[in-house]
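Action item from last week, closing it out:
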Amino acid sequence: MKDFFVLSILLRLFSNFYIQRIITMDKSFDYKELDIEGLDTLDSVAQANRFNKWMYKTIQPYTKGRILEIGSGIGNISQFFIEDKQNIVLSDIRENY
């Protein structure tokens, strides 16, 4: 598994809130199959292309081999890995992302 590098992009502006609730086992966390607010946020961040490119360039030097992105959303950062022909597997908790 040395070629398999797990890349967790949890640097997204909105993810810290959700991750903190999951880590602390906050019972008020309400999973939504269809998260309209989250999708709206992802769509807004998608418009910030220079920001997304900066995030990609920040983490890209630390990636190698097969990459697993956990929480890929709609691919705001993933698109750059794909454009650079990186071997990446995308995953998210919601199917509509």
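Closing note: Residues 1-14 have pLDDT under 50 and may be disordered.
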